Amino acid sequence: MKIEGKEYRTIWFDEKKQTVKIIDQTKLPHQFIIKDLKTVKDAINAITTMEVRGAPLIGATAAYGLVLSITEKNDLSYLKKSSENLIKSRPTAINLKWSVDRMMKKLSGVNDKDILKIAIDEAKSITEEDVRFCKNIGLNGLKIIEEIFDNKKDTVNILTHCNAGWLATIDWGTATSPIYHAHQKGIKVHVWVDETRPRNQGANLTSYELNEEGVSNTVITDNAGGILMQRGQVDMCIVGTDRTLSNGDVCNKIGTYLKALSAKDNKIPFYVALPSSTIDWNIKDHKEIPIEERNSEELSHVEGVDENNKIKRIRIYPQKSKSLNLAFDVTPAKLVTGLITEKGICEASEKGLKGLFK
Ligand code: MRU
Fold first, then answer.
1. CA of 174 to the centre of ligand 1 (A)
2. What is the CATH number of domain 2-129?
3. What stretch(es) of the chain map to CATH 1.20.120.420?
4. What is the distance between the alpha carbons of residues 166 and 131, in angstroms, rounded to a whole number?
5. What's the pTM value of the predicted model, to 2 decimals?
6. First CA to last CA across the chain, in angstroms?
7. Contact at 8 Å (CB) between 159 and 228?
8. Mind telling me the catalytic residues?
9. pLDDT digit string (tens) for 39-96?
10. 3.30.930.10, 3.40.50.2300, 3.30.70.260, 3.40.50.10470: CATH of 138-356
11. Is 182 helix (H, G, I), strand (E, B) or coil?
């Protein structure tokens, strides 16, 4: 998708320099900085500090992290250690483990001479596949937006939470892909963007990327969704996910669950968009999902620019106050209207998912 009219992806391999390029998302929307990752440690650091974030992009960064591990030291035990460290870098998004496992399977038994090329090709194929899948998610989700538009004959208001946009993937996004496809088809859409405290991925990233694509949007506080739904100002919700269980339970950014409850109470369709790399076929009970707990300073401090466009970080509540920063929650399948995947839309249930993914 575009930034200042120029097409970008969130991650790519620089063949000449043998480095991985990323857009540093901790600086958006105030500064647009492209960074080089040169070592597996750089890749781990980018994931941990959230220079890259969003389930599919974390997965792609981990794949390229293994490429960098080979460029540093072509040694099997170093590669294994790198894969373990990458998997530990963020716990909740299953795409991370999925991607590392896929890379390690591809590289097992490969000789030293060929391993780098095979690793680069596989990391590229993970990213290309994600682009294709996200595009298909968009085409499948477009049908829902079209139906609402045909009935309403007016702007379709869509609420989303966090950033499940192209910045969270490689291109298109998951939750935003149907929106971009609708917009490109000339259907009038407007997006309610949940600010998404504490890191404000909605306000900082979703609103930013929608603005760059010319999609009408309004940032709201995380608590405003309820009243907008009661007032009939939301036609549908679409969110992303970091891990969806085979029974259809959806783990996503903290606050998603409350939006789904509110949508249910107001009879508003609540959809979750995901590529199959986000499905966890192993865990059966959502209580087993490792929910990331991040630094409490993400709550107690905010960052923004002053009147001179200088980035400033300030504390917003008493130093003595304790805080708990849980990064994700789980929305039970019964609150989810449907799962929009690359293969089609299905019920949020084992039957639904197995129907699409045999
Ligand atoms: O903590 P983040 O910013 O990595 O969380 C991102 C989300 O919760 C997204 O909704 C999810 O990863 C889906 S991305 C297509």
1. 10
2. 1.20.120.420
3. 2-129
4. 9
5. 0.97
6. 32
7. yes
8. 242
9. 999 999 999 999 999 999 999 999 999 999 999 999 999 999 999 999 999 999 999 9
10. 3.40.50.10470
11. helix
